[in-house]
């Protein structure tokens, strides 16, 4: 049962209360003043305190104030013979849990009050412990989440770095076989990103353009060097061989987890806006926007480059070719943005 501290300056009142509560099975401590009561509380840590209000040498207000500060989880019940409603309200506001008036004609009322505040104190303690456990679990979860985020960031950084190394390796392999195409890929990537920026595309789409530009002709690794470096006109069969590079690029890239549709853009970079391109003959906006941009950058870069079998066109002539074929070979919006890119670069 509970340990109860009874503070009252009237010995008879203390005795009556003590006898009654001991009959209920509780352990009872006694103090004759507020000051003594507070000292006993500090020594014995009772489960509940019953205190008179008017006492010499430290009254009930002192008890309530001290305990509310030192041990707010300990219930204090004021039992007063001189109390008014104002005083009762005041003690409750100061932290008393309940208020009874003397004389206690029915001691059962005291017994019920003690039981009720004890139960309330236990419930509060259980709720406090629950909140403490909850807070501790929340902090644990926050730490776990932080660790997970850190390790996840590490993983993403490692993947990105592995991806960059793979792209470089692809280009090194391609450079050994076909130096022109490796340099061409890098230049196309840069032009495509500039056109995308002129169109106001976000960073994710620009990243796709950059990757697709760098990798769009990677499938030429699978085309014979004799055809790739042939001087003069290609036969129909040889041209068919060249055309296989788009599906070759796609096969190399399709299983890489890029953030955007890089493999798909690469697959479509020889599609034409009017449907006369390859490999699928897609028309208009059925072709991904990034692929339509890449097509412009690809042709412009190819036209302005010197090849062993022909000199490159001037930027102005190559740009004229792009703008003249807007709506047929090229997407008109992309050609428009390309026009802005060119005027900025030529001015
Ligand atoms: Fe190509």
Structural commentary:
This protein has 347 residues and is α/β, with parallel strands linked by helices. It has 13 helices and five strands. The protein has a five-stranded parallel sheet with strand order 2-1-3-4-5, with helices on both faces. The mean pLDDT is 90. It is rod-shaped. It has two domains: 125 residues, Rossmann fold; 169 residues, Hypothetical protein af1432, CATH 1.10.3210. The protein binds fe (ii) ion.
Small ligands present: fe (ii) ion
Radius of gyration, in Å, reads 43 Å
Largest sheet: 5 strands, parallel
Strand percentage lies at 5-15%
Mean pLDDT: 90
Helix content: 55-70%
Q: CATH topology of the largest domain, which one?
A: Hypothetical protein af1432
Number of strands: 5
- What's the domain count? 2
Major beta sheet, strand line-up: 2-1-3-4-5
Residue runs with pLDDT of under 50 for 5 or more positions: none
Number of helices: 13
CATH class of the largest domain: Mainly Alpha
Which features characterize this protein?
single chain, 347 residues, alpha/beta, Rossmann fold, Hypothetical protein af1432, 2 domains, five-stranded parallel β-sheet, 5 strands, rod-shaped, binds fe (ii) ion
SSE map:
Blueprint: E1 3-7, H1 11-23, E2 27-31, H2 34-44, E3 48-51, H3 60-70, E4 76-80, H4 85-94, E5 98-101, H5 107-177, H6 179-198, H7 203-215, H8 225-228, H9 236-253, H10 262-267, H11 289-304, H12 315-324, H13 332-346
Parallel strand pairs: 1-2, 1-3, 3-4, 4-5
Helix pairs in contact: 2-3, 5-6, 6-7, 6-11, 6-13, 7-11, 11-12, 12-13
The chain binds fe (ii) ion.
Residues 216-217, 245, 269-270, 298 line the site of fe (ii) ion.
């Amino acid at each position: 049962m509970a340990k109860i501290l009874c503070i009252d300056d009237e010995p008879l009142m203390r005795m009556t209360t003590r006898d009654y509560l001991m009959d209920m099975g509780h352990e009872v401590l006694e103090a004759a003043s507020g000051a003594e009561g507070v000292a006993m509380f500090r020594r014995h840590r009772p489960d509940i305190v019953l205190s008179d209000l008017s006492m010499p040498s430290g009254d009930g207000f002192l008890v309530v104030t001290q305990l509310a500060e030192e041990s707010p989880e300990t219930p204090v019940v004021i039992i007063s013979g001189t109390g008014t409603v104002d005083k009762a309200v005041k003690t409750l506001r100061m932290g008393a849990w309940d208020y009874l008036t003397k004389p206690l004609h029915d001691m059962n009322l005291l017994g019920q009050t003690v039981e009720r505040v004890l139960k309330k104190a236990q419930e509060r303690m259980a709720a406090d412990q629950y909140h403490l456990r909850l807070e501790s679990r929340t902090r644990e979860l926050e730490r776990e989440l932080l660790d997970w985020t850190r390790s996840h960031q590490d993983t993403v950084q490692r993947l990105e770095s592995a991806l960059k190394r793979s792209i470089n390796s692809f280009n090194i392999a391609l450079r050994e076989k076909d130096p022109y195409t490796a340099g061409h890929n890098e230049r196309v990537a840069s032009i495509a990103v500039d056109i995308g920026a002129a169109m106001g595309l976000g960073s994710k789409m620009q990243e796709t353009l950059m990757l697709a530009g760098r990798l769009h002709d990677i499938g030429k690794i699978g085309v014979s060097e004799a055809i790739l470096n042939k001087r003069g006109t290609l036969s129909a069969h040889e041209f068919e061989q060249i055309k296989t590079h788009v599906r070759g690029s796609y096969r190399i890239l399709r299983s890489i987890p890029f953030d955007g549709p890089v493999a798909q853009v690469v697959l479509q970079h020889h599609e034409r806006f009017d449907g006369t391109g390859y490999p699928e003959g897609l028309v208009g906006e059925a072709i991904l926007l990034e692929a339509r941009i890449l097509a412009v950058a690809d042709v412009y870069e190819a036209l302005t480059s010197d090849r062993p079998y022909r000199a490159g066109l001037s930027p102005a002539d190559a740009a004229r070719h792009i703008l003249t074929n807007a709506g047929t070979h090229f997407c008109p919006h992309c050609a428009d943005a390309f026009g802005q890119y060119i005027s900025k670069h030529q001015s």
